User: Which sequence fits this backbone?
């Protein structure tokens, strides 16, 4: 079996630069630190926060609606949540996970698709307001870290996490650190072009993976089937309540779990696209495990089994190389919150 190559070998420069200077590369000996941290997961519609202990347990939670696109309003919401949760707990640090690109030292949000953050120096602003160390991270990175520390990925040295929701997010934990790439924007796996000239993606390209293996893709395929007036489509429309435009990926997942054959077939199609994209990633990254999370994974093995079959069929060098495992995530929607809190606790920045 081939040995994993580590970026710490002579002649290979780790993409994060020096671990001493970068908070995203926690050392193993920091993982034993105790104490409580608050993790905050900022989404397009809600801001969820929780008090998390050193074993990944959520002790208390609070939520707010995401306050529009005003960066200052989001900061005020974060402060409110931290103040509320701190009332009954002694908090050492705060970790914040949000969709978007962060600079390499975790101080500035370069871009966020859900909020009006553009080159926003968020960490320094929040540290002044909260009077505690703050770590800022991408939400997919936080979820991957949580699964590696406390979930399905425990014990795996090379982990790739895929989140299937509206689109496809991704992150990597390699040899005990979140791998963010040279410029801090690694993990945009959903925008690998898997079908040149295919469906138009919100990123501006055509044929991106997330246009074929995501919650949005599942809903689109179901609506298109209904509009063909095929017998399967008519039956699906009836089960979905008669409104084709209201059918979503969640609708199809619920019907599939209830036993609907057409919905199960649609999910299996998504699984095949998922497995194909994972085979591409395995050829490039050679992980030991893929952990699949996000709302679409509510379908469980209805999605995972076709993905595993397609992965095995399309893997480069199949039959002559070890195969990464494909497993479902364990921590559910709390993963981002748990991971952000834990990263804030174990990072060097939290104790500088």
Assistant:
């Amino acid at each position: 079996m081939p040995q994993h190559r580590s970026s710490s070998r002579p002649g290979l420069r780790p993409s994060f630069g020096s671990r001493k200077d970068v908070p995203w590369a926690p050392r193993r000996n920091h993982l034993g630190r105790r104490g409580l941290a608050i993790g905050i997961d900022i989404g397009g519609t809600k801001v969820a926060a929780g008090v998390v202990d050193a074993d990944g347990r959520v002790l208390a939670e609070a939520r707010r609606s995401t306050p529009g696109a005003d960066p200052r309003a989001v900061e005020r919401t974060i402060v409110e949540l931290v103040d509320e949760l701190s009332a009954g707990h002694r908090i050492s640090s705060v970790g914040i996970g949000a969709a978007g690109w962060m600079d390499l030292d975790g101080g500035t949000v370069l871009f966020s698709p859900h909020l009006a953050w553009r080159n926003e120096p968020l960490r320094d602003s929040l540290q002044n307001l909260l009077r505690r160390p703050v770590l800022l991270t991408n939400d997919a990175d936080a979820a991957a870290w949580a699964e590696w520390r406390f979930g399905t990925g425990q014990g795996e040295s090379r982990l790739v996490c895929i989140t299937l929701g509206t689109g496809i997010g991704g992150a990597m934990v390699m040899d005990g650190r979140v791998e963010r790439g040279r410029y801090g924007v690694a993990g945009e796996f959903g925008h690998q072009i898997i079908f040149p000239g295919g469906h138009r993606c919100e990123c501006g390209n055509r044929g991106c993976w997330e246009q074929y293996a995501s919650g949005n893709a599942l809903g689109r395929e179901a609506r298109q089937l209904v509009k063909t007036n095929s017998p399967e489509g008519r039956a699906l429309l009836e089960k979905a309540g008669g409104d084709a435009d209201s059918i979503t990926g969640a609708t199809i997942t619920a019907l599939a779990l209830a036993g609907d054959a057409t919905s199960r077939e649609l999910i299996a199609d998504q699984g095949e696209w998922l497995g194909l994209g994972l085979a591409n990633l395995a050829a490039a990254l050679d992980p030991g495990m893929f952990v699949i999370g996000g709302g679409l994974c509510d379908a469980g093995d209805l999605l995972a089994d076709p993905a595993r079959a397609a992965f095995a069929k399309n893997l480069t060098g199949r039959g002559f190389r070890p195969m990464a495992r494909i497993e479902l995530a364990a921590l559910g929607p709390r993963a981002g919150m748990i991971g952000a809190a834990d990263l804030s606790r174990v990072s060097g920045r939290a104790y500088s």
Summary: Residues 1-30, 348-352 have pLDDT under 50 and may be disordered. The two ends are 41 Å apart (CA to CA).
